[in-house]
Hints:
Helix 2 (55-66) packs across helix 3 (69-75), helix 2 packs across helix 5 and helix 3 (69-75) crosses helix 4 (83-92). A two-stranded antiparallel sheet has the order 1-2. The chain is 40% helix and 12% strand. Strand 3 (229-235) and strand 4 form a beta hairpin. Among the domains are: 55-113 and 258-285, Terminase, small subunit, N-terminal DNA-binding domain, HTH motif (Arc Repressor Mutant, subunit A), CATH 1.10.10.1400; 134-215, no CATH class. It is α+β, with helices and mostly antiparallel strands.
Amino acid sequence: MKNQAGKTAVGRAKVAPVAKAKAKAAPKKKTKVLPKPRAVAPKKKGEKGHNTVSRVDLFVKEYLVDLNGRQAAIRVGYSPQSARTQAADLLATPEVQAAVAKAMEERSERTGITQDKVLERWWAVATADPRELTELHRTCCRYCWGFEHHYQWTALELRNALANYEDQKAQAKDGDGQVRPRKPDEVGGIGFDPRNDPNNECPECWGSGIEQVIAKDTRDLSPKAKLLYAGVKTTQHGLEIKTHSQGDALVNVAKHIGMLAQRFKVGATDDPDDDEDAVGFVLIPAKKKHTGEAD
């Protein structure tokens, strides 16, 4: 048993050096040495690649021009067919939203236009009195205050009417077939004032008077009315006084103070003939705060 055990031990002792020898004889893997990166000289002005701006950066810049996502996407090179979808995807990413917010803040600092100033202007337009621009007056008719409700003249009108009557009478001849001029009715007297109120007992207008639209002198407008005023246009029916929308101004005020929430409208059609700009803000009512009280 001892000899057998000894042989076994000897055999093991002889085998172990052989295994180690084989392990030492295995070829070692060579490590590939990478070349050191070459120093690249900076691009000179005018060379290709100098100050390269990504399309996303260009989109942010163009979006600030008119806040129109689709048009901004087209201007930076996206096809009109996919511009809406591309713009919606870009505006939905946190990176683009952060870039737009940062660019708007920097522009506000450069121009000195703050949110408070914009809010104050919208509020001034929303609360301006449009009667400072135009008014509807109801004034008396010619028969309201004349004696016994006869036609009432101003002093100059009656004087001119009588002079015209005398001229026509002097030119008229008997028997020539001409109609003799009619003498103006002086019973109503003079003193007509178009600024007076209607007379409820007038048998001609029955107190309704005459409607008059009065356009105010824009040189005398208050600061609020000046912001509301948007110009004047001459039409075939008279003057048209143009104003900024007070309803839109009030909505903008509500948006600024958080009364209305905003969200992006996505999932729009890519039809280039669709004039409706699907990329933008859609107003939705802000959520009410729960107070714990029953409605």
